[in-house]
Amino acid sequence: MERGFKLLSSLVLSSTLLTTASIAAGGDGALDKVMKARGLSEADVVRAAKTYNPTGVHDKYLAFSSGGQSGQVLVYGVPSMRLLKYIAVFTPEPWQGYGFDEESKKVLDQGKIRGKDITWGDTHHPALSETDAKADGKWLIINDKANPRIAVIDLSDFETKQIVVNPVFKSEHGGSFFTQDSEWIIEAAQYAAPFDNNYHPIEDYKESYRGGVTMWKFDPKHGRIQEKDSYTIELPPYMQDLSDAGKKVSHGWGFTNSFNSEMYTGGIEVGMPPNEAGMSRNDTDYLHVYNWKKLAELAKDPKNVKVINGHRVVPMDIAVKNDALFLIPEPKSPHGVDVDPTGEYIVVCGKLDTHASVYSFSKIQTLIKNKDYAGTDPYGIPILDMKKALHGQLELGLGPLHNQYSPIDGEIYTSLYVDSQVVKWNFKTLKVLDRVNVHYNIGHLAGMESNTADPQGEYIIALNKLSIDRFNNVGPLHPQNHQLIDISGNKMDLLVDMPIPLGEPHDVVTIRASKLHPKVRYEMGTNSRTEQISEGKTLAGQERIERKGNDVKVYATLVRSHINPERITVNKGDNVTIYMTNLERAEDETHGFTVDNYNVHASVEPGKVATVKFKADLEGVFPYYCTEFCSALHLEMMGYLMVKDP
Ligand code: CUK
Ligand code: CUA
User: Fold this and answer.
1) Which CATH code, of 3.40.50.150, 3.20.20.140, 3.90.79.10, 2.130.10.10, is assigned to 61-515?
2) Which of 80, 89, 282, 292 is in Cβ range 3.0-4.6 Å of 53 for a Cys bridge?
3) CATH-assigned architecture of domain 533-644
4) What is the pLDDT of residues 524-583, one digit of tens each?
5) What's this model's pTM, rounded to 2 decimal places?
């Protein structure tokens, strides 16, 4: 696949070939004809060739994009920018049976908040699991800003396996980020709120409202968050924001931005200026710097924690007393904070400031060691002097938001929201190197494994919030625009646009496809959500219907081109459970299953068991059938549910 791609590039990049060669698809002068007919320049053709995958050729990288308000994850290939899959995460998704079969309902149910069903999510930050600060291709996590939750996706089958609800936050944004060996996940709150579940008047903001960072313990072997071993660092109500975990030299530390050092709480009732001005009055906000490793040790002693909603919270004074929590001023209303591949530099973007600020971890450590503090905040947290903690600052343009690193020492790419640009600069020498226009209003940007200790270079994807005129008009709600940029040369070159038709995708993480090894089938009889053999596993010849009182259990098999049994007769009011085992071993021979009018659907991949459950409360005759076009006799793959009044 690699070879094919290289061959193609060398073929098309040769400009003599471009103008003179005959192309198999068209014959003499075909390329010229196509270029003329479609109004393409030579540069256009080269760009097209850089992203074109002939049929059967795979992509070098896979990108995992947040699905924004869809609550899902999108997967696409780079450089082809071909959409490969949606992964159902926080929102029911019928194709995958997510929320329509029993196995996936159990996953979605983990995301209930205080007993309340939450059937959407506002996904922002996906993160790939790491070993030694490098992407290892095992797990993907993603946060939900609106309902503070984190989901774990297994990259062996691209299915969501776990959802955890933050027990103390009411919203969150600074998640989710793995530490360098995926033993912890950082999740920072966003809008400050009381940690308990009670009403507290807004006048008590400074006393009762809190921000924080939850450190979720993660088991990288089994891919599950361990809620009991997790803890939260209590923080002031400064509206915490994006975060990043230290790596290498800064391993053990975490960094979290904030944008409301004013502790402004809204002014409608008391005649204060509107929100924006209120939260941006001060010239600086605070970068929170915390030693989560030390705090994890402290949290083991019950004397050091407050238990809130059954969850351990380390109070600010305990963190301060143990030299584990510090603040550093940063230009007001910052946005991204990104630790460089060595762990020494922490780059914070200004958003309302035209600068990026490069903090030095070793300078921060020296200030901490010497207790060289510039003062304390109202909560007694030591403040480090900004100038002394900075390696330097550089003016980049209007609205710097997020950063990505490259394999070249000191090279960094930053998104400029207001200027609609990606700027390449050097964070060590503090020099701007290049900039390219994007379309339009870029938020995050994604390099190839760029947030790890092993960035690959090659491409940057600009995640643009607005597409305006880039695509056919499909009504007032536009798709967003992911633009692929070639960064392999001195000058960045914009290659192609890709519309994202599923919510606002805040962030993307990427990985070399060679690091992923997803399976093509399950061990026969597997409940894919638990990875255990299902109680409903049914082999050929074992199909049966069991009745106990009003409970009817159907043990069914699916194989081209039969659903066995072909007739299920029940009484009105019976509780019906249908276990389906897909007996296929062939790759991509998925069968779907639905019972008409009963709002159930399952996707049953080879080897999988999926279960649908319903009360037979509608009397009548209901066809059930396979919903995937699986063979020439697909339409014949059906049966009848007979519901009679006894
Ligand atoms: S955020 Cu949307 S552009 Cu939620 Cu990471 Cu910056
Ligand atoms: Cu099985 Cu269609």
Assistant:
1) 2.130.10.10
2) 80
3) Sandwich (2.60)
4) 999 999 999 999 999 999 999 999 999 999 999 999 999 999 999 999 999 999 999 999
5) 0.94
